[in-house]
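User: Quick sanity check before I run a bigger batch. Here is a single chain. Can you write out its predicted 3D structure?
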Amino acid sequence: MELWCIEVNDVFEANYENIKKVFLLYHSQRQKHMSSKNALDLMMKQTDLQFTPKEAMFCLGYSKMTVRDESFNFIEYVKVQFVELLEMIGRMAKIKFRNTVQEEEPLATKIELVLDMILPLANVTRVPVAIKDAEESESDEDY
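Assistant: Done. Predicted structure follows.
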């Protein structure tokens, strides 16, 4: 998947704090994590993403990391870690714009569109990626 590349990383890095605010919305005194149910509600009910249950389960399921000692740590299957939320956002972007005019857009652009839909939950907006000029490097002959 094209999720782990510089362009996508730049989008996530620029919006890290705001995505974290959405993630922390689901923490309370009794629940110190985002749950699988919270993640599914985010995709199907709380935003305009309008995912079907099948699409939402796909995004969540493929974003989960392997659980070590799963017979003793089975509760980890219902917790969503922050890095899993990031991957879930990437998968949501891929699925949300399937068979649309945005399908050919780069994944980073689709992730920005998804962030525009989920960040308002935390009363924040997406931070645009600052475009940096590529530095000229010296060739080997210059050394």
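The CA atoms of residues 22 and 123 lie 9 Å apart.

User: Great, the batch can go ahead then.
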